[in-house]
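Render this sequence as a predicted structure.
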Amino acid sequence: MTEASRTAKRAALVYNPIKVDADALRASTTRHAQDAGWAEPLFFETTVEDLGDEVAREALDAGVDAVLVAGGDGTVRAVSEAMSGSGVPLTIVPSGTGNLLARNLRLPLDDSDTMVRATFEGETQPIDVGFARLRRGDGETVEHAFVVMGGMGLDAAMIANTSGDLKKKVGWVAYVDGAARSLVKARPFPVMYQVPGHRMHRANVQSVLIANCGSLPAGLELIPEASIADGELDIAIFQPKNPLGWLLVWRRVAWDNSVLRRFRAGREILALRTRDNSIRYTKGTGIDVAASAPQPVQLDGDEFGEATHMAVRIAAGSLLVAVPEGHTSPALAAVRAALAAD
């Protein structure tokens, strides 16, 4: 090994071999690294046992200067968990069916070469990462990260009831089938919840959803105001009391948030409308949710079993993401504004 190769920067690629064309992606990463004068990249495959967090830590321990991740939302979540607070930039190469973080950052979804090149020639922006500490019914406690959203209740049950085979065939649309299965058995459950700095609430809810960013596929805006870089989490408490309540939930997400809010006239209509309590919104640096019985939990679209207590916190600006030079998006607008102010 020459002195130049020992001192050159090095990137690592973490990829799910089921989700990507491994040969093409490795070749693209190697080519761009060589063009930038970096050393030959390191390559790590995820497995059923290791979704990407362990190999990402291996890459960090090896002293890499950048990490690329290619896989589904679960792979991105796991690698982000390992890299939060490391100061090493992460490049998201969209793969799989969801790509929810990439969608919220408005990254190119069908141009992996552009994202690979951004590792070596692009810019970096800090984004927030959420961490959820879960306490099981037997008292066991675990903590995991999420970069898009986590939840307790019906949203997690919907994911648990979604057919894995159907998801592989039709992507995120498969969740419609899971939702239909879950709604039949959906029952509200009592919780106590508290956002730091606010009083404690008791409510019968269908779901508590905690969002780091709020856009879903098909142009749906679950939480339009959610920002991935404001140091806060946006929280939606779903508490419809009857079928009409569910219609109001759907109207809020599919029409009010996703259509009307885009136009000034629509926003004026919303300002005049009587508010309903089918969805209650709040925000803060975290939330504690305690349920009387174990409830299903999901993080970034993956099920994480059941828990009686979920304590969520935000790690503000703890993850550096690489984006193409000059790239911008509403999700990153707060970051750019803050940097410009400084």
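Summary. The domain at 3-121 is CATH 3.40.50.10330 (Rossmann fold). The CA atoms of residues 70 and 311 lie 29 Å apart.
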